[in-house]
Amino acid sequence: MYLHSARLILRNFIDSDLESFLAYRNDPVVAKYQGWGIPYPREKGETFISSMKEKVALKENDWIQFAIALKDTDELIGDLGCHIKKDDIRQARIGFTLASKHWRKGYISEVIPCLLEYLFVDMHIHRVAADCDVDNIASFRTLEKLGFRREAHYVESFLINGVYTSEYHYGLLQREWREKFKDG
Ligand SMILES: CC(C)(COP(=O)(O)OP(=O)(O)OC[C@H]1O[C@@H](n2cnc3c(N)ncnc32)[C@H](O)[C@@H]1OP(=O)(O)O)[C@@H](O)C(=O)NCCC(=O)NCCS
Q1: Which residues are 163's β-sheet partners?
Q2: N or C: which end of the chain has fewer CB within 10 A?
Q3: Ligand 1 neighbour 98 (Cβ under 6 A)
Q4: Which atom of ligand 1 is the closest one to the Cα of 107?
Q5: What is the pTM of this model?
Q6: What percentage of the chain exceeds 70 in pLDDT?
Q7: C-alpha 31 to ligand 1 mean position (Å)
């Protein structure tokens, strides 16, 4: 897997990503709205990278986390996950994370369109879904900027670190994406 934007590449994880990966997985501001919990141990990071580097194609009922790296240096700065729904290979779900020192530079809204183009054009995906904590402003602003529609507000629906949090669910159809970003 290899996709690229002006400043970034999306590629498979490689062993040398481990230190950067552990650093942002263990950063409390990055982990705040995520389900992985900290401390995030080294062994889990090693297992994660070895499973991700083997994955070559998106498959039904499977997640791939793609590494987001700086084009100039190949430094890992985050990851972009994609899951293909069980029993429906035309529906996908995405999730995304960046190391905090790289926030607010427009990186995630630069790189997600590369994956959306791949999903909608090459894989003929019909619908892409995403969800986030209602307090995760950066996440839902990103989704809305990329054309996602807020479809639901689930109240105290997701248990994270022993607390029930509320979530927004978003969706983007292929035809909506074409209307917004491709046609005309
Ligand atoms: C969500 C995240 C990936 C955003 O990445 P980013 O590269 O900083 O986002 P961008 O710079 O591309 O900004 C995208 C939009 O969100 C807005 N935004 C980003 N961070 C924001 C913040 N803290 N507060 C308000 N708006 C914010 C930007 O202004 C931009 O909208 P605009 O261009 O209309 O102004 C990053 O904050 C992150 O990794 N957070 C921790 C992990 C996480 O919670 N992931 C989501 C799980 S669902």
Answers
A1: 160
A2: C
A3: yes
A4: 7
A5: 0.97
A6: 99
A7: 14
Rounded Cα gap, residues 181 and 28, in angstroms: 35
Q: Please name the residue whose Cα sits nearest to atom 3 of ligand 1.
A: 97
C-alpha of residue 87 to centroid of ligand 1, in Å: 32
Predicted local confidence at residue 115, as pLDDT = 97
**What is the spatial distance between Cα 149 and Cα 133, in angstroms, rounded to a whole number?**
15
CA–CA separation, 31 and 26 (whole Å):
7
Ligand 1 atom with minimal separation from the 33 CA: 44
Architecture category of domain 2-182 in CATH:
3-Layer(aba) Sandwich (3.40)
- Who's near 58: CB < 8 A, 6+ residues apart? 64, 82, 84, 92, 123
